[in-house]
Predict the structure of Deoxyribodipyrimidine photolyase.
Amino acid sequence: MTEILWLRRDLRRADHPALAAAAAAGPVLPVFVVDPRLWRSVGPARRAWVTANLRSLDEAYDGGLCLRVGDPAEVLPRLARETGAERVHLTRETAPWGVRRDAAVAEALSAADVAGVPSGTPYAVDPGTVLTGSGTPYQVFSPWARAWQQHGWPAPVAVPTDLRLAEAPSDDEARRLLDEALAGDLPALAAAGEEAATERWRTFLDGALAADDEARNVPAVDGTSRMSPYLRLGVVHPRTLLADLAGHSGAAVQRYRLELGWREFYADVLHHHPHSAWADLKPALAALEYDEPGPELAAWCEGRTGFPIVDAGMRQMLAEGWMHNRVRMITASFLTKDLHVWWGHGARHFMLHLCDGDIASNNHGWQWVAGTGTDASPYFRVFNPVTQGLKFDPDGDYVRRWVPELADLPGKAAHEPWKHGGAPGYPDRIVDHAQERAEALRRYEAVRA
DNA sequence: TTTTGAGTTGTTCGA
DNA sequence: GTCGAACAACTCAAA
């Protein structure tokens, strides 16, 4: 009997509970359903990234990955009829849109006498599991992270050794959509697939992580793990990474464990507060005064604000489908505090372009910067784009790499072109930071009063 | 129920 | 240039 394995955010074979469950029951038919609703809502970099990882997974299955296009609630019951399958195995989705979709699919399958069999989630600890002593959800990260680590997580799941595959043809339309996604001028993406992810992870584990905890903050240096695009599609499971970390010690290792913890924490927050995807987690701050987005938003999106570190980050995102985390905070602070634009506009732009764009991490991260999220953060925390640039890109290498107009400004001068005769073709600053900082503080003060 | 310690990532000013 | 204090209280989670 064919066991359908419906893949979504779990494009891997290693440490895959749903694959293990399917393989234990019979021959496995791995299937990916291209949902046009989703496919159209993301940018070219994200479509290309998904496609490249699907291709890699297809190779791992010796060309046995079945691709279909359409609404999964129609495609999957049809595929079950076609193959005689009685079960559809899947990794449980935990974000609001996916939860709703999966409920609709479960209903459609049930009507066709097919069972949906969920195994695991994309997280080491399932969202909703970690609770306070009184059984309520945690609101702040640090106590949550203590409880999360105390709770612990299962060991990685072994790859099935006796895997038998079932076959079903792919749609021509699905093939066409994927071919299209890899055609034309594409951003410079990372190498796709499990092997590439593992290689990258090993390099990080033995290199940057072992060497220096501070390298992670320097955008000119390749000092971060760059696991986020792989984690986003489940090319690697965090449980695998946590198991590897257990073999290492030191401050940087614990720090990295907590970075994975943030990913899990934000998924947990979203599980308990699904509305916080696009609404302020702190209702009191919903009254904050914003400016209607205008030409300044476009300047920010395109990297033309006249602030080198902001523009470098925005251009890196367009070029690579990825932005260094330090720079994400700086650019987000600039949009919300200097331009006074609602964080949701920035979050949407990030989701469109970032290959690792995840609704929980992205949107809660934005709310953290905007001051409307989980952190009891001092509202006066406003990033100064020049100070941040000088501090974390002291030699100016990062801004010159992404903003070629600054090429002739040596060293740290690249962060303040206006002090060094300007840079040909580079725009003037679109706002006065000191003035807008004061304005941001005024608006927060008005909400508090 | 009350109390207590603590809270990712910043900036500016003045000594 | 370096360092500590001020920014200003508020909420959370556990004891």
Notes: Chain A has three domains: 3-121, 129-154+194-272, 283-448. Chain A has a mean pLDDT of 94. Residues 56 and 195 of chain A are 9 Å apart (CA to CA). Residues 140-143, 217, 258, 262, 325-326, 329, 333, 368, 375-378, 380-384, 387-388, 437 of chain A lie near DNA strand B (CB under 10 Å from a C1').
